[in-house]
Amino acid sequence: MKRNVYVSAAASVVLVVAGPVAAATAAPADTARTAPTAVAPLVDVTAEAALAAALKNYPGVVESLDREANVWHVDVITKDGKGHAELEVDAASGAVTRRNVDTDQDSNEHKDLLAAKVTAEQAAKAAVAAHPGQVWTVEWDSDDDGRAASWHVEVRGSDGKTWDASVDASTGKVTEQADSDGDSGNDNG
User: Fold this and answer.
1) Residue 99 vs residues 54, 72, 74, 77, 141: alpha-carbon distances, Å
2) 124 contact partners, CB below 8 Å, separation of at least 6
3) Residue partners of 154: CB distance under 8 A and separation at least 6
4) DSSP strand pairing (174-179 vs 96-102)
5) What are the beta bridge partners of residue 102?
6) Minimal CA–CA distance to 61: which of 25, 26, 107?
7) How many Cα atoms sit within 13 Å of 83 on the Cβ side?
8) Helix 120-130 and helix 47-57: axis angle, to 10°?
9) Which residues pair with 75 in a beta bridge?
10) Whole-angstrom Cα distance, residue 134 to residue 48?
11) Which partner for 85 in 19, 58, 123, 172 could form a disulfide, CB atoms 3.0-4.6 Å apart?
């Protein structure tokens, strides 16, 4: 009888000590059965989606958009011309971060941009229609040298080459186009 008590006591000790260890080693096996076998790839936020996210966060008119590594940099001017925001849109998640907001701008400084018939979004679409690929940069260009205001749009083709376009801010017509690979004066890359 004493022997049965010792065996029962020993079995109890084994269950008390080994129980949590056995449960811990069993948990990953159970988790492995319910976990997906492949991890979903990160979503790459397009220029169009980055523009939309920026404007949702800070309504106005886009002045520029530029991709640097995994971040879209977007400058937005309020429709009254008095506000300016520098935003960053995460290229993987689409999350928007406000980096700098100024609400005391001279509204005359951006009058050409605010009066433009063609938006940054429309300029990007026109450039991609002329040269298929992904928009990488959209910048407002309103020089005082007598030229009409335009949008500078940089498109990266599926072949990896970069293509520059000038899109007329009044008509949306692509007025210039050039392959910018090999252009050592390109400051966007």
Assistant:
1) 12, 12, 10, 14, 23
2) 47, 48, 51, 65, 135, 138, 153
3) 135, 136, 137, 138, 162, 163, 164, 165, 180, 188
4) unpaired
5) 84
6) 107
7) 14
8) 180
9) 64, 86
10) 10
11) 58
In the block, tokens 């009254």 appear at: 80
**In 3D, which of 83, 46, 84, 45 has the Cα closest to residue 64?**
84
Alpha carbon 49 to its chain centroid, in Å, reads: 7
Residue 6 has pLDDT above 50, yes or no: no
Output the six-digit token pair for 78: 């309020």
Distance CA 111, CA 4 (A): 95
Nearest CA-CA partner of 138 in 164, 113, 112: 164
Tell me the two tokens of residue 37. 């076998």
For residue 51, the tally of other CB atoms under 10 A from its CB is 22
Residue in 82, 115, 116, 124 with CA at minimum distance from that of residue 101: 82
The model's pLDDT over 25-38, given as tens digits with 9 standing for 90+, comes to 444 444 344 444 44
Task: Judge contact between 93 and 80, C-beta under 8 A.
Answer: no
Minimum mean pLDDT range among 74-83, 116-125, 134-143, 180-189: 180-189
Residues 45 and 95: their CA atoms lie apart, in Å, by 10
- For the residues of 9-68, what is the DSSP string, one character each? HHHHHHHHHHHHHHHHHHHHHHHHHHS-SSPPPPP---HHHHHHHHHHHS-SEEEEEEEE
